[in-house]
Design brief:
The protein contains seven helices and four strands, in the order ααβββαααβαα. With about 160 residues, the protein is of the alpha+beta class. The two termini are about 30 Å apart. Helix content is about 50%, strand content about 10%. Helix 2 packs across helix 7. The chain has a single domain, classed as Endonuclease, Chain A. It has a four-stranded mixed β-sheet with strand order 1-2-3-4, with helices on both faces.
Length: about 160
Amino acid sequence: MPKYYIKEPIKVPKFEEANGFYTTKQRSQIMSRIRGKETKPEIMFRKALWACGVRYRKNVKKLPGSPDVVIRRCKIAVFIDGEFWHGYKWREKKGQIKTNADFWIPKIERNMQRDAENNARLQAMGYTVYRFWQDEVRKGLMGCILQILSHIEHCERYS
């Protein structure tokens, strides 16, 4: 399947000491414990959806970006994004990256670019895409759930 880019993809350099990037053993250990799936906010979100009677699939690899939650009957794709990795308030935070900035800035910007590409591809497939920040789920779980429930109600009413 050919790749369709909104723009030319941002080039991210390899994270190697030869390229001037370094990490301490402590930092390496901390970074190795960061998860891509089954994070606490994702689990909270899924449990709340399940309690409301909503059935879903998780981490659907056949869809662009492997959404964290997919509700197929209403074509809803939900992503729960980490603030650092997906560029929350990026204009403010970008200047605060001091260590290995030549790696992290393109890395995060490429993640943001990939998110936009995946959103566009999912929308072209007829999906409605919701992206929630992890902190938004932690602090305002019911607000996030109500957005999904509202969409499901609208979908079922007009189908």
